[in-house]
Each structure stands twice: as structure tokens, then as C-alpha cells.
């Protein structure tokens, strides 16, 4: 599904250049659950933005489902995102003064799906993260941190994406809410075969994945199997 080769990313701020990614290569197969770990500033979000077709690498190639994404126009990239990718951003990016239901429906805006159907899909995605209908008409500033996080995840699921990219989705959650969120990802991965790439600082969270990629100073320093908790649980 994903094949990146020798990707670099250079940010320019005025005259200053900063190399956030320095030659990153890996492949991720359909249906894999991968965690990306690394210190703050190591390039994780930068990598996620490139994998999510939100940004392009300075050099290197990125094939998504056999297609060279670096050759696509902005419009074509937007099509790829709408059809294939669900995002949970580090800052969650919910629209203020907008209800839970509307925030969740957002990725379907230009999909050509009618309003009733968009609502149905939003309700399904909200149910999957444990959000109940008592909150559907709350505005984002009337929600707890954990609820904001769950709405952000619901929004990522609403277009039924084959690839889900989540940046610190359980960052500030209590254990119980964090478990609901991780359980949602696991279910999507195991039952529906969705590919999941999850950025996290917490080894405990990373252990829910099949594979962990460690990144430091814009380079991969380790890439291997996780001592998957769920595998252990399955055999228990
Ligand atoms: N738009 C930008 N312009 C300039 N520099 C940037 C930009 N975005 C990120 N950087 C720099 O690139 C480096 C990698 O940033 P990135 O956001 O990918 O880190 P991260 O691994 O996600 O960190 P964190 O764990 O704190 O979220 C950082 O040093 C950051 O300052
Ligand atoms: Mg980040």
C-alpha cells in the first residue's frame, strides 16, 4: 500500500533551512497496524503529513496503492485524501462553534453524498468511539478533552478510509477513554482490515501495533515487530 523511498523534507523559514526528514524509506502493507515513535521534533508529524498527501517531500518518492503521489496535482491529492485517508491530527482541528455531528460530517462535504446519508455515517462513526447522542449537538467548546479526541477520531472514520493516520490520538486521555480509542483502532484493523499508522510517545500504546518504527532526527533508527499485546491476549 505504502512505499516511500529516500524521502527528505526541508523546511525553509526565511533564510534558514531545517532538514526535518533525512532519507526515510519503508513499505507498509495493506492491513498493517504500525506505530511511529520518536522524541519531540524528530519528524513524526512531518512524515504523517507526507503520508497523508497533505504535503509533498522535498526529495524522494512516495507510492500509495501503486500510484506515484508526488506527480499528482493539488486537486488529485485532495481526491486521494477524501477517498482513502482518515486523519486524526495532533491538535484535533475541530471547528469551533460547530456541533459534534457537523464536525464529524465534515470530510463528506464534497463527496456528493446527501445530507441524510452523511448524518447516518457520522452517527455510526461517533457510536464507534463511544460518543452518545446526548452530545451530538454540543459545540466543540462544550466538550471535555477526551470527548474532543473521540470526535476527532470519529471524523477520521466517517469516510470509511482504507488508511488511518493518527497523531497522538490518546495523548491526554485517561486510561479508560484511551482504551476505548485504541479498541476502536484495533477493531478497524482486525475486523475490517484497515491500515493504521499511529504516532505515539507511549510505549504502552505502541505495543498495540504489529510493528514499531522509531525515528530520531529525521531518520529511522529501528523498525521491527512489537511485542503485540493483542496477540498475547489472543493466545491467552
Ligand atoms: N512548517 C514548518 N516550518 C519550519 N520548521 C518546521 C515546520 N514544521 C515542523 N518544523 C520543524 O521540523 C522538525 C520536525 O517537526 P515535527 O512536527 O515533524 O516533529 P514531531 O516528531 O511531530 O514532534 P512532536 O512529538 O513534538 O509532535 C521540528 O524541529 C520542527 O521545528
Ligand atoms: Mg508531532
Write a concise keyword list for the protein shown above.
4-stranded antiparallel sheet, ATP hydrolysis activity, 236 residues, binds adenosine-5'-triphosphate, 6-stranded mixed sheet, alpha/beta, Rossmann fold, transport, nucleotide-binding, globular, ABC transporter domain-containing protein
Instruction: Give the CATH class.
Output: Alpha Beta
Strand order of the largest sheet: 6-7-8-3-9-10
CATH topology label: Rossmann fold
- The CATH superfamily title: P-loop containing nucleotide triphosphate hydrolases
Number of domains: 1
Shape: globular
- Overall mean pLDDT stands at 90
Report the order of strands and helices.
EEEHEEHEHHHEHEHEEH
Rounded to the nearest angstrom, the radius of gyration is 18 Å
List the uncertain runs.
Answer: none
Under the CATH scheme, the architecture is 3-Layer(aba) Sandwich
Oligomer: single chain
**Cα distance, first to last residue?**
31 Å
Largest sheet: 6 strands, mixed
* Total of helices: 8
Structural class: alpha/beta
**Strand tally:** 10
User: What helical percentage do the residues reach?
Assistant: 25-40%
Keywords: ATP-binding, Nucleotide-binding, Transport
Organism: Candidatus Taylorbacteria bacterium RIFCSPHIGHO2_12_FULL_45_16
Domain ABC transporter: 2-235
GO cellular component, one term: membrane protein complex
Polypeptide structure, described:
This is ABC transporter domain-containing protein. GO terms for molecular function: ATP binding; ATP hydrolysis activity; transmembrane transporter activity. The chain is an alpha/beta fold and 236 residues long. The chain has a single domain (30-56, 82-235), classed as P-loop containing nucleotide triphosphate hydrolases (Rossmann fold), CATH 3.40.50. The chain is 34% helix and 28% strand. The chain has 8 helices and 10 strands. The protein has helices at 44-51, 74-84, 100-105, 115-128, 145-157, 175-192, 203-206, 229-235, and strands spanning 2-13, 16-28, 33-37, 59-64, 67-68, 85-88, 163-167, 195-199, 211-216, 219-225. Strands 6-7-8-3-9-10 form a 6-stranded mixed sheet, with helices on both faces. A 4-stranded antiparallel sheet has the order 2-1-4-5, covered by helices on one side. Strand 4 (59-64) and strand 5 (67-68) form a beta hairpin. The radius of gyration is 18 Å and the shape is globular. The chain starts with a strand and ends with a helix. The structure holds adenosine-5'-triphosphate and magnesium ion.
